[in-house]
TrEMBL record:
The chain crosses the membrane at residues 12-34. InterPro entries: CytC_ox_assmbl_put (IPR047811). It comes from Variovorax boronicumulans. This is Cytochrome C oxidase assembly protein. Keywords: Membrane, Transmembrane, Transmembrane helix.
Length: 38
C-alpha cells in the first residue's frame, strides 16, 4: 500500500514530467512552424 504522502509525491512527479513533455512538444511545433517557412 502507498501512503497518502507517497501518492501526493507521485502525483507531483507525474505533473512535473507531463509539463516538461508538453513544453518540449510545444517547442517542437513552434520550431516546425517557424523553420518550415524558409
Amino acid at each position: 500500500m502507498t501512503t497518502p504522502e507517497q501518492r501526493r509525491n507521485n502525483r507531483r512527479m507525474g505533473l512535473t514530467l507531463a509539463s516538461i513533455a508538453v513544453i518540449f512538444f510545444i517547442g517542437f511545433i513552434v520550431r516546425m512552424v517557424f523553420f518550415s517557412g524558409r
